[in-house]
Structures are given as structure tokens and as C-alpha cells.
Specification:
- By secondary structure, the protein is an alpha/beta fold.
- Helices cover 41% and strands 15% of the residues.
- α5 (141-150) packs across α6.
């Protein structure tokens, strides 16, 4: 997708609370500098950055949308289906319970992958020490990939997945999936909108949509940074046909690799954002 002009709202970003490179405060400040009026912080399987982001947003005059990106899936599927939760109450008991379970599972999975890398002869003692000191953080393959890149074991971030961390590679460890319908239910229990994240990145989209289309979705992430113009058209039509709202965001993680230059260049224009607000209001969901 080509860079957009006059972006008003970015409803998909990541901070250091998960696998982003900017702290929540830095992310909010960068959004303000880029001219955004609304930003959602949607860290992977954690709401740990929202309190800091809320304070930063208050001082900067930008509106914060509290959010999350849940990694979901089902048995027999290799890749996750990601569920964006927007306008959530991060203190909701059902959400907190799920995230505590997810954090523990991801922590142990990450340590298993580190141990496998050590068994391959890689010096990952420092990485393991970092992980063991931070059981409260949502740790995973991106953190490991960056470490391997920093140490020169791979040429780039993606190379770590291709050589070690993808399914079938020597340091891959399967993860326990949260079912998409459970993720949606928890987001609704937290008062939020449940949105299909970046559907255009799903290679077997037709099969996936056939599996998940009957769930209680509220929206589709139509205006996504890596969607082609034909993707945008397709998912806008799909949203309209199914009575769903269209959201949009950059999926910004920081200034590295394919994530560089995304902030402020992808998301929703002011017109699209207030169309989202209007459609939500018509459904009885007030996000003003």
C-alpha cells in the first residue's frame, strides 16, 4: 500500500511493552510529531504500556485508544490469526486473566527456544539472563531474532526466522493458541471492538475467513500498511457486506526493516475515522 496523506488516526502500533522499539511515551510523542491526532497502542498480548501511554497522551494533547493485539489460532494451523481489540478497558477481569495465562506460556516458550539455540552452539547466555529477569514482559521470537541479528548469527531480522525460529527450523517451539472466538469474547467483555487484523497478510485467507466469518467480529483492518489497493477494495467490500466497520493502522514497531517510516503514513484519514465513529455509534458503541 502506498503511503497515505493526511493520516488522522493510526489504530495499530507497538511499543516496548511487547516487541516495539519505542517506549509508550516515545511512541505517543512520535505520533504527535508526525501530525497524528489519534493513536492506538496495540501491543501483542499485553496492556502493560497503556498506563504510561495514557499519561503521555494527556500531556501531548493526542488521543489514546487503548488496545491490544491477541495472537489466536486453532489446532492444525501453522500461523496465528491476530485479533485487534480497540477501545478496551485494560483492567477488565476476563482480559487480565487471559493475558496472565498468555504471558506465562510465552515466557516458557521463549526460554525453550533459547535453550535450543544454546544446544546448537550459539552463545545466548546473555539473552537467557535478560529473559529470566523479565518474566513479567511478553517475550517471544522477535526479541530472540533481534538478539541473533545483534550478535551476527544472522544477517538480518528475518534471517533469524528463516534459519532458526520458523516452524520446521531447529529452534522452533509450537505455541498454545487462544481460539479466535475466545479472543473476541474477552475483548467484548473488556468493552472493546474485536477486529480482524491485517487480513491481507493471510495467504490462505479464503479458508481462514470460511472458518472465522461466523464469529462475532466488529470490524476488519482494511486500511493496513501492507495491503495492496486491491486488498483495500476487497476488505472494504467485505466489511460492508457483513455489517462490519473498517479500521486502519501502520503496525509500526520502530525504525527498522520494513517497519521504518510507517508511523504517520498509514491508517485512517479524518473522514474515515469519523465514519468509524459514526458507524460505531449506530451500533450503540460510543467511541467519542
Amino acid at each position: 500500500m502506498k503511503k497515505q496523506k493526511n493520516i488522522f488516526a493510526d489504530l495499530h502500533t507497538h511499543s516496548t511493552a511487547s516487541d516495539g522499539l519505542l517506549t509508550p511515551t516515545q511512541l505517543v510523542e512520535s505520533a504527535r510529531e508526525k501530525g497524528l491526532s489519534v493513536i492506538a497502542i496495540t501491543d501483542h498480548d499485553t496492556v502493560g504500556g497503556l498506563a504510561e501511554a495514557r499519561q503521555a497522551a494527556h500531556h501531548s494533547g493526542i488521543r489514546l485508544v487503548p488496545g491490544i493485539e491477541l495472537s489466536c489460532g486453532w489446532q492444525g494451523r501453522d500461523t496465528s490469526v491476530h485479533v485487534l481489540g480497540l477501545y478496551i478497558d485494560e483492567k477488565a477481569p476476563a482480559l487480565q486473566k487471559l493475558l496472565n495465562q498468555q504471558r506465562e506460556q510465552r515466557f516458557h516458550r521463549a526460554l525453550k527456544m533459547v535453550d535450543l539455540l544454546a544446544g546448537l552452539g550459539l552463545d545466548v547466555a546473555e539473552l537467557k539472563e535478560r529473559f529470566e529477569k523479565s518474566p513479567e514482559k511478553v517475550l517471544g521470537r522477535p526479541h530472540i531474532a533481534r538478539y541473533l541479528q545483534e550478535r551476527g548469527y544472522v544477517k538480518d531480522f528475518q534471517g533469524a526466522f528463516e534459519k532458526y525460529l520458523s516452524r520446521g527450523k531447529p529452534a522452533y517451539v509450537p505455541k498454545d493458541h487462544v481460539l479466535p472466538e475466545v479472543g473476541i469474547e474477552v475483548i467484548h467483555a473488556a468493552g472493546g471492538l474485536a477486529v480482524v487484523a491485517h487480513p491481507g497478510l493471510t495467504s490462505d485467507w479464503a479458508a481462514v475467513w470460511s472458518h472465522i466469518s461466523g464469529f462475532k467480529w466488529d470490524g476488519i483492518e482494511t486500511y493496513y500498511s501492507e495491503h495492496t489497493p486491491s486488498d483495500v477494495k476487497k476488505f472494504a467490500q467485505l466489511a460492508n457486506q457483513n455489517g462490519l466497520v473498517s479500521t486502519g493502522g501502520s503496525d509500526y514497531h520502530g525504525e527498522y526493516g520494513k517497519h521504518a517510516d510507517r508511523l504517520g503514513s498509514y491508517g485512517l484519514t479524518q473522514e474515515l475515522y469519523f465514519d468509524l465513529v459514526s458507524k460505531c455509534a449506530a451500533k450503540g458503541f460510543d467511541i467519542t
